[in-house]
Structures are given as structure tokens and as C-alpha cells.
Amino acid sequence: MLWLLPLFRPARRELVLVEALLLAGSGASLAASWAMGRAIDHALLGDAGGPVGWIALGALGYSLMVVMSAGFTWVARVRIERVAQAAMLALKQRLYSHLLRHDVALHDRLGSGALLARVSGDTEAMRLLFSEVILQLPGDVAMVVGMFAVLGVTAPRLACIVVASLPIWIGLVVWYRRVSPAAFADVRKESTALGGWMAESVAAIPLLRTMDRLEFAAEHTAELGRARFDADLRYGLQSVWFFNGLFGVRSAVIGAVVWAGAEQVAAGEISAGILLVTVDYVRKMVEPFLRLQFHITTLERARVGSARVKELLDTPRAVVDPTAPTEWAGVGSGLRLVDVDFAYVMGQPVFEGVGFDVAVGRRTAIVGPTGGGKSSIIQLLARFRDPMAGRVEVGGQDLRSFSLADLRAHIGLVTQSVQLLPGTVAENLGTGAVRAAVLLDELGLSSRLEPQTRVGAGGETLSRGESQLLCVARALAREPEVLLLDEATSAMDPDTEARITAVLLARAGRTIVTVAHRLKTTMDYDHIVVFNRGVIEEGTHADLVRAGGLYAGLWAAQLAQEGAA
Q: pLDDT tens, position by position, for the chain (565 residues)?
């Protein structure tokens, strides 16, 4: 976890002050017991001031030292928390920025639940590590060392009894350290599985109801919950054994100290006050070990979290900007795929050796059976992913030669999945109120929506068709030269679809690539590519129907379905 240290460099002076306060708190805690012990000795010896006076003075000194120790510790903890929170805020910002800029493949692989757990849960574990363990550990060490130093000077024989118990204390810690990581890993695994499933299933409740799968969801949740319960129980019982062991050892040590100490007091080898100090030190000595148990838990949680966050931050982007970007010069000769191989998983190609042209300023449709790789072509053209081999070109230049910002500024994309965020219509369109009003009017939404109309997460306050229309408006907001549509009108009625098509064609020279399953929506396109893990046929609608190939079969099947309906 040394890679996290740069996050704390801005707070170096604050950390020095924190450690000084913690050490002062430990010293005051040791002094409190000593003050009371010495007061009792003076009272028993009959020194001037009388027993009551000395006891009162000892109580006052003890209370003062306890207050000072609590005060130093409180100030230190507040400052520690501020430092840790600031460091983790910087880490969360870095992590979130990394996720925003990362490839689509990463989000497909991990999912929103797993990514949310790393951004929030894992960073929280690391915050606890720094605020509760690393920064406070010196104070605990100073406490134990100080105890043995005082006892070694004032009561060597009693110190030997306490030292003799150390192997047992340490043995308990070693045992717990050995068994707890595996148990905690199980807890973490089951917790992640349950949390990820809950995040995904709650979002899919409408679908689960539609598919009558609520009982399945409940049973699966119960199954994951039982696995989480079992893992928590195993881990919790280990903690119980550890705690009981510590307290049992402390009770035994205190009994041995009182037995041996009483004999030494009777023999005049030590004073009663020293015996009291020793007993109080043994009582306090369990506190660092108890905190150590918590520290071990926190350390394991933070170690796992740190590894997961580091892995995420170290995951390189496959789609990156070139070192010397080519300046955008327009679509030029159009879009082109040249001998393109593509796979989502290495060794499992979606298609190989694909090549076709998209003429500039023309409408090109990509049609074919489901699962044939049509949407993958759109992802390549938008450069959400790069081909394994071959080139995807615009204006004769490889897409990889342009900066991503420059490329995306000239390419608009509308997918069949609706992606809207909480906020106003104008905010979702990424434009000002005036431009938003114009787009709403063009798309026939001005009677229902205004630029300042609030939109719920995922467009929950809108119909499916309205949400898809807003996605089209968002793609048009920057007047892109190239428009990529992946089933972009699937939720629209024929009249709305025809109106939207007219809006899309309103700008002369715009190059449009559409993936569609409803062939009637693309029958008047300039060029149609029939695609099924490769280019099967190309041509106009009339040419392809006359050819009697795959397209003609799909066309006949759709006409038959409409006729049956």
C-alpha cells in the first residue's frame, strides 16, 4: 500500500503534530496511574497532609492526567480524520476520473455494482486503515513500551510476570492473524456478491415483475444472504475467541500480579502504590491488543480494498489518444473498414477480415440476423473499441490517429439503450436552453417538454419513446458530421420515426450509419450492408430483393409477419 503515500504528502506537518499529540496522550495515561499510586504511598506512610488529603490529591492528579490524555487523543483523532478524509477524497476523485475515461470494455466486464464497491467501500476501508491503525499505532506502541519501562525500574519481579504473559498475548494475535484473513476474504466475497446482486436486481424490479421472476429473485437473494450470514458467523466467532482469550489472560495476569505483589508489599520490597500501578498497567495493557484485533480486521479489509483499487487504477486503457494526433479535416472520402478482425474475448472472434465502405453524405444501413456483429461495427466506428487487426478509417485516416475528443466532437451516437441522468432536459442534451428549445421543437417534443423540465434517472419520468427522442436530440445538439444509429428508433411509432428520419436528413452532407432490424425503416437508404459475422450482401433495397439472398429472405419474413398481424 506504499503507492498511497503520495496522497499524504500535503499533510506532512499535520501528521507530525498528530503523532506528537498521540504520544503525549499515551504519556498522560501512564502518568495518571503513577500519580494515584504515589498518592496512596504517601497516605499510607502518614506524610504531612493526612491520608484523606493525599488520596484527594491523587484522585485530582489522576483525573487531570486522564482528561489531558483524552484531550490530546481527541484533538489527534479529529486531525487524523481530516487528513484521512482528504487523502481518500483525492483517491476517489482520481478513481472516478479513471473510470470516466476508461474503455467501455471495463464497464462491461465489472458492472456498476462492482465498480461502486471499489469507489466507495474499498476506499472507506483504506480510510479506516490510516485513521485507526497506521497513524495511531505509534501511540499504542509507546504505551506498552512505557509500561514495561516503568515496571522494570519500580517492580522488576512483577514486570517479569507480565513479560512472561507476553508469549500468550502474542500467540493469540498470531493465531487470529493467521485465521482471520481467509475468513474475512470469504466475508468480502459473499458481501460483494450480495451487494452486486442487490444493486442489479433492484434496478431490474419492473422486468422481474413482468417476467414473473420475483420469487426467483427472492430465493436467490436469500441464498446469497445465507452465504453472507455463514461467512459473517465464522468470522465473528473467531473474534469472540480472540476477545475472550485476551480478557482471560488479563484476568490471570492480574491475579498472579496481586498474589506476588502482596507478598512483596508484606516483605517491604515494594509499596502498595507500586502494586496498584502495576495492576492498573496490566488492565490498560489489554487495550492496545484489543485495538490490534480491530487493526488486523481493518488491515485485511484495507489490504483487499487497496489491491482491488490498485488493480483498477493499473488497468490500462486499450483505446487511447495518439501521441501526435492528426487534425480533423472532415469525413472526406467517407468511412471505411479495411480487413477488420474483432473480438470481445481473445480467441473468440466476432468477425474476421471485414471490409466495406460508407460513402460520405449518404445513408448506409447495416442489417442482418441478431448476434451477427452489427452493433460491434457501430462501436468500432465510434471508437469505443479498437479492432484486433485491420483499420477503421474516416477520410482515409485511421480513427486511431485522431484524439478521442476531436473524433467524438464530430460523431453523434444514438443506441437502443436509453442513458439519461437526473437533471433538466437541457442538461441532458448538453446544451443551453435556447438550443434545447429548438431541438425539442424539431423533434415534436416542445408541447410536452421544456428545457428546464426535470428528468429522472434513466428517464423514469418519461415514456420510452420520449426518452429515445431525447437521446436523438442529444446526438444532434453538436451538429455532428457522422451520425451512428443503433436501433435508435425502436421505441417510436411509424409516424414519429418518419418525422425523426426527416430531421436527421435535414442537414445536407451528413453521413448516417444505421443498424436496424425493421427493414421498412431502411428500404429507401442509399446503401444496405447485410451483415452476419461478415459482409454477406451489399446494394440497394431493390437490388437485394431481386438477388434473392439473405436480405430477400428477411424481407419476405417481415412482410409475412405483418400480414399475419
A: 667 777 777 877 888 888 888 888 888 888 888 888 777 777 776 655 566 676 777 778 878 888 898 888 888 888 888 888 888 888 888 888 877 777 777 776 676 666 776 777 777 777 777 777 776 777 778 888 888 888 888 888 888 888 888 888 888 888 887 888 788 778 878 888 888 888 888 888 888 888 888 889 889 999 999 999 999 998 888 888 888 888 888 889 888 888 888 888 888 888 888 888 888 888 887 777 777 666 666 777 777 777 778 778 877 788 888 889 888 888 888 899 999 999 888 888 899 999 999 999 888 999 988 888 888 999 899 888 889 999 999 988 999 999 988 888 899 888 877 788 888 889 988 888 999 898 888 888 888 888 888 887 666 778 877 888 888 888 888 888 899 988 877 767 777 777 777 777 667 778 999 998 888 888 888 899 999 999 999 999 999 999 998 999 988 988 887 664 4
- Going by their DSSP bridges, the two strands 389-394 and 454-455 should be labelled as unpaired
Q: Nearest-CA neighbor of 191 among 116, 247, 248?
A: 116
How buried is 95 (Cβ within 10 angstroms: 0-12 exposed, 13-18 middle, 19+ buried)? buried
> In degrees to the nearest 10, what's the CA dihedral of 491, 493, 499, 504?
20
- Phi and psi at 35, nearest 5°, equal -60, -45
Greatest alpha-carbon pair distance for the chain in Å reads 121
Contact (Cβ atoms closer than 8 angstroms) between residue 21 and residue 78: no
Using CB atoms within 10 Å of the CB of residue 13, give its burial: 0 to 12 exposed, 13 to 18 middle, 19+ buried: exposed
The dihedral over CA atoms of 72, 75, 81, 86, expressed in degrees to the nearest 10, equals -130
Other Cβ atoms less than 10 A from the Cβ of 551: the count is 23
Amino acid at the residue 402: F
First-to-final CA distance of the chain: 64
Phi-psi region of 253 (alpha: psi -120 to 50; beta: other; left: phi over 0): alpha
- Residue 54 main-chain phi, psi, to 5 deg: -65, -40
- Cβ–Cβ under 8 Å, residues 310 and 3: yes
394-397-400-404 Cα dihedral, nearest 10 degrees: -60
Contact call for residues 364 and 282 (beta carbons, < 8 A) = no
Q: Which three cell numbers stand for residue 19?
A: 503523532
Q: What domains can you pick out in the chain, each with its CATH number? A: 11-314 (1.20.1560.10), 335-564 (3.40.50.300)
Which residue, among 511, 519, 544, 193, has the nearest Cα to 330 in the 3D structure?
511
Rounded distance between C-alpha atoms, residue 231 and residue 225, angstroms: 10
- Count Cβ neighbours within 10 Å for each residue of 272-303 and write b for 16 or more, e otherwise: bbbbbbbbbbbebbbebbebbbebbbbbbbbb
**What is the DSSP-derived secondary structure letter of residue 459?**
G
CA distance 438 to 326: 33
